[in-house]
Amino acid sequence: MRVKILFNIAFFLFATNNIHAQLNIQAANFTVQTGAVVNVQGNLTSSNDLPGFGKFLLNGSSAQNVNMNGHSIPNLEINNSSGINLTGNARISNSLLFTNGKIIAGYYNLSLADIATTTGMGTGNFVETNGPGQVIKEITSNLNALEIPVGAGTVYRPAFLTTSGSNSGAKVGVQVLGTVSVNSPSMASDYINTNWTITETGINGSLNTSAKYLTSDISGTESNLKPYLFNGTDWSSTVGTINTATNTISFPISIASANITAMDKFDLLKSKMFLQGAYNSSTHLMIDNLRTGGLIPTSDPYSTSTYNGAFARVNDAVTETIDPSILNDQPLQGNNIVDWVFLELRNGHTVLQTRSALVQRDGDIVDVDGKSPVTFNNVNNGNYTIAVRHRNHLGLSTDPSTFTPALSEAQSSATLVDFTASSTSLYGGSTAHGVASDGNYVLWGGNANLDGKVNYINPNNDKDYILSNILGGLATGRVSGYSIGDLNMDGVVRYTNPTNDKDFLLSTILAGTATKTLTQYLP
């Protein structure tokens, strides 16, 4: 059964009235007088403001829908543990009481008039902003730590608004999600599983927002947490404060939309390099045979027994992993993944932290999400020495005496460390790297035995290592897979036959000089 009020007739309710079906008010003057209560156990829909000062009580036994088409309810009480779903925008003009249950906003906004009050909010009793919808507070006079009743799941995670100055007619929207911010770095080590989006229009004075997280939201070490604000492009940890005793983060908001959360202090590295074994001077891209052959591991290879003796992890306790989809074809072929690389953040000769990351065909070194700059956690903004290494290439490093790029959490202002260009000051100078025929610098290839040198006939040479240790002494043999002996990175180790690795070592890497030795230069 559905109760419809369709005609332009005045209805005045002076006492409690029970509506056990749907209440659909389309074109009537429906007034609930002060002290009167309308109990609605079905859905509530209206194409008009609901006049009067009475109360609408939503107390159904199953989930109820409310669609006010943007219009106002004077007083609303929620007493439904199954929840109230907004199916259209709604506005509270006087009071909102949570007795039991929550309003689920989804795609729609719940606005609170300037004089509207909210009470009863807490665990399980709040507005769940589980979609783009927000709780929007209208402002005519300044607010003092006004509590906005938002949460996620059953967890109450309110925000508090304080304004000063001339803000009449302004609006502030709040959304909270019980997840890590989608804008957060892929490899943050300490963070809260909560983020708030604050929007504002018409603020001419100041707006300060505080938000409260739970101890159970913390992943990692709380003492490492810093307050972070995302402005749509960059994160900043300099404008907010955090009180770990009260689990509160606070920020001045001076932009139209800000995403706030807490995580460890991090710096971003934007860098670029080419691997000689994979580089094609004609296309100015590296080949990605390992990816197309399904050979790239989804877990950091530098943590395995094959490589971990030569690649020591420092302040990098979590083994990097990637989702297999990262290795799919990308819209731009230059963004396809070539292989894993190993990065060192140094203070001169001292390695402060390491990271395993990915390199794309165009040389960009990216984090485990396959696209973002690489994150170094719990480090301060500053100037550092950067070294990049690879499992069968000789590493390269910036020269700490001439070039220490500035790192910060702001992606837009991060210095690009370009190991492919002559403008970068490299440790060891011209002897530390190769030069492709198109003039781009490349990491020397050919280091099959991980000794930091590349040679062809001298003792402990890489040619003999491939023959004896990888091919078992069989010169006509071949090994397919992710192998340290795959010097040309085509996915197959060969000693003879066309495109073999022995000849690539001699002709391309050593430029035909069998007696030549290349040495890795790191500070």
Quick description:
With 523 residues, this protein is mainly beta.
List keywords for this structure.
523 residues; mainly beta; Chondroitinase Ac, Chain A, domain 3; 4 domains; 13-stranded mixed beta sheet; 4% helix
Strand content: 35-45%
Coarse shape: elongated
The pLDDT mean sits at 93
**Unreliable sequence segments:** 1-15
Q: Please tally the helical runs, counting DSSP H or I stretches of 4 or more residues.
A: 3
The number of domains is 4
Measured between the Cα atoms of the first and last residue, the distance is: 80 Å
Q: Structural class of the secondary elements?
A: mainly beta
How large is the radius of gyration?
A: 31 Å
Q: Quick one: biggest sheet?
A: 13 strands, mixed
Q: Give a count of the beta strands, DSSP E runs of length 2 or more.
A: 49
**Helicity, as a percent range:** under 10%
Reconstruct the topology from this structure:
Layout: E1 2-5, E2 10-13, E3 17-19, E4 22-25, E5 29-32, E6 37-40, E7 44-46, E8 55-58, E9 64-67, E10 72-79, E11 84-86, E12 90-100, E13 103-104, E14 110-112, E15 117-119, E16 127-128, E17 135-139, E18 146-148, E19 150-152, E20 155-156, E21 159-164, E22 170-177, E23 191-192, E24 195-201, E25 206-212, E26 218-219, E27 225-230, E28 235-236, E29 241-243, E30 248-252, E31 257-264, E32 266-272, E33 279-280, E34 285-286, H1 289-292, E35 337-347, E36 350-360, E37 364-366, E38 374-377, E39 382-383, E40 385-390, E41 393-397, E42 406-407, E43 416-418, E44 434-435, E45 441-442, E46 453-455, H2 462-470, E47 478-480, E48 492-494, H3 501-509, E49 517-519
Parallel strand pairs: 1-4, 2-5, 3-6, 4-7, 6-8, 7-9, 8-10, 9-11, 10-12, 11-13, 12-14, 12-15, 13-16, 14-17, 16-19, 32-43
Antiparallel strand pairs: 17-22, 18-21, 19-20, 21-25, 22-24, 23-26, 24-31, 25-30, 27-28, 27-31, 29-30, 32-37, 32-38, 33-34, 35-36, 35-40, 36-37, 39-42, 40-41, 44-45, 46-49, 47-48
